[in-house]
Amino acid sequence: MPHHETGEALFCLRGVYMDQIVIQGGRVLKGEVRISGAKNAALPILISSLLADGWNTYSNVPDLKDIQSTKLLLSSLGASIKSDGDIIKINGGGMCNHEASYDLVRKMRASILVLGPLVARLKKARVSLPGGCAIGARPINLHLKGLARLGASIELKHGYVEAYADHLTGNEIYLDIPTVTGTENLMMAAVLARGATVLRNAAREPEVVALADVLIKMGAKIKGVGTSVITIEGVSSLKPVSVSIMPDRIEAGTFMVSAALTGGDVTLLNCEPDHLKAVIHKLRLTGARITVEDKLIRIVGADEIASVDIKTQPYPGFPTDMQAQFMVLMSVARGFSIISETIFENRFIHVSELKRMGADIKITGNTAMITGKPALSGAPVMATDLRASASLILAGLSAVGTTEINRVYHLDRGYETIEKKFAKLGAAIKRVKI
Ligand code: EPU
What we know:
Elements: H1 4-14, E1 20-24, E2 30-34, H2 39-47, E3 55-59, H3 65-76, E4 80-84, E5 87-91, E6 99-100, H4 102-105, H5 115-122, E7 124-128, H6 141-149, E8 153-157, E9 160-164, E10 172-174, H7 180-190, E11 196-200, H8 206-217, E12 221-223, E13 229-233, E14 242-244, H9 249-262, E15 265-269, H10 277-285, E16 289-293, E17 296-300, E18 310-311, H11 323-331, E19 336-340, H12 350-356, E20 360-364, E21 367-371, E22 380-382, H13 386-398, E23 402-406, H14 409-414, H15 418-424, E24 428-432
Parallel strand pairs: 2-15, 3-14, 6-7, 10-11, 18-19, 22-23
Antiparallel strand pairs: 1-23, 1-24, 3-5, 4-5, 7-9, 8-9, 11-13, 12-13, 15-17, 16-17, 19-21, 20-21
The protein binds uridine-diphosphate-2(N-acetylglucosaminyl) butyric acid.
The site of uridine-diphosphate-2(N-acetylglucosaminyl) butyric acid (EPU) has 23 residues, from helix 2, helix 6, helix 7 and helix 13.
């Protein structure tokens, strides 16, 4: 049974499993939507609180299931936490427990990010192995190899990673793949190591840059942020900080696709257009008119959507986290398009559900061939992971008739009140508690 099924059973018991999102498709979306703080920036940044004693203050934190899981994880390690709306204060000074349990890690893979900080500060860590998930095997071998290069001894026992280092020592680390959380984990370990660490083939995602900026503010010495070679000169201690979480580029991209898909006119507020260049480029090729101003993007959908090919790549390439949403757009475009997924080996799980809504998609290996149809037709569908769920919402918004999306807890992990935001833009969408 896939790993995520266990968590599923838990949510089922709590009743969340039963929530449904019901959409009456065909409305043209219009208006303004405020983009929330980025999930994938917030998670490592909240975890970086473990690296210093004293109260850190984080603002613009999105209200998501994954943030709740992170708070549970951090308090289980001994951190103190206070929350007030979108502001979370965390004091990592009380950290005393070096174990991240299976129960916590299985709910959220990003929990593995505590490994670096735990070894750096407590000299030891025992963290449950995350296991696979719906979109692929997602090993953490590069996190572990990197930590070993910094001098940690690492063993895998009873489903846990056990790591120990009297002290970490800087070293050269080459990452076979520019892993996002791997780069983040190793940065957090290296900031308190003795001497210099060079991370080669590091990830360049904006979320990695955001974490590095926070670490620098805490007193870390990091150079090359945003390039594939990051150099970190270890320091003996860090201080707490006050920071705001950057806007979520994937949430922004999802709303942009919704405007393109419904021939709408949507303005995104509080977003970072610089992080969305690949998505903006591809959407313009589909015929959408996009204007960009400082923290604002306006997108006006075309009468007819043109077919455009995409290939997912590490940043600054087209993000894998936008692949499923873009595929929905191509399902109703004029002509034929090809989407190649190069990051995860199993990220086409939304395809079978889209086909049930009438999409014409053929898969060969990591390539999807899509022949656009005039319209999709509403149907009951099942969400399987976070971005697949977002794609089903988009499909429902453009489809003729009613779409019922089940297992919406995947959405709650990563989108803040998505149904309310779409309703404000004029969508006929509601959450139904059964
Ligand atoms: N990989 C390895 N070994 C490793 C680490 C990664 O082989 O030790 C492979 C993965 O299996 C994958 C590729 O490298 O094939 C890239 O994975 P990466 O490590 O970059 O992904 P991640 O850090 O686990 C983050 C995001 C994902 C996003 C990916 C790619 C967070 C918390 N998660 O995952 O976000 O898709 O980067 O950009 O930052 C989502 O938000 O829905 C989501 C899945």
